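User: Earlier you gave me the apo prediction for this protein. Now I'd like the version with zinc ion bound, so I can compare the two side by side. Same sequence as before, with the ligand SMILES added.
Assistant: Got it. Here's the input I'm using:
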Amino acid sequence: MTMERLFANNKAWVSRKTANDPDFFQRLVNLQKPEYLWIGCSDSRVPANDIVDLAPGELFVHRNVANLVVPSDLNMLTVLQYAVDVLKVRHVMVVGHYGCGGVKAALSRAEMGLIDNWLQPIKQIMATHRSLLDGLDDSTRLDRLCELNVVAQARNVAATSIVQTAWTRGQNVQVHGLIYALNDGRLKDLGCTLSAPDHLEPAFRLIHDGG
Ligand SMILES: [Zn+2]
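And here is the structure of the complex with zinc ion:
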């Protein structure tokens, strides 16, 4: 594998994109109006735009190991704030995937260094749902924890001051939890959509002046 291969691929891609649509790139320059923010895993097998078949300009993307939403993560917060306040996306999707290496690493409890700290929120979910998870076989346990992680991270998105402030000013933002299956390419809605403050646990609801 060489770097040259990437530049050759890029040249061929540009040719394909402009073959039937000479203005493809010119149009994109003036168009960043995505309606969706994808918060997904860095895993190379989970290519955001490809999975939902969206063109450049249609999907705003943030990815990290195990699609975590850590409320002190300035990178994630910056992406979320820009997406909600400036781009005015309608849908924020936390997208996990079955067989996630990050979730698997948390589950294994093997020491791996710095990443052990990053994975702590998943261990918290493991602790909260220990009796449920303990009763499952290994592969089902991993699948279930991948799903529980997505639901928890979707709630974390909704609990941010960014999303709650948007709701307070009447902006329509929905937060979804989705999971992707590597083995068949299918994306599943976990049915944990949050679209109003009362979808949050009371402890997380911010009280704004005037109501
Ligand atoms: Zn992953």
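For your comparison, keep in mind: DSSP finds ten helices and five strands in the chain.
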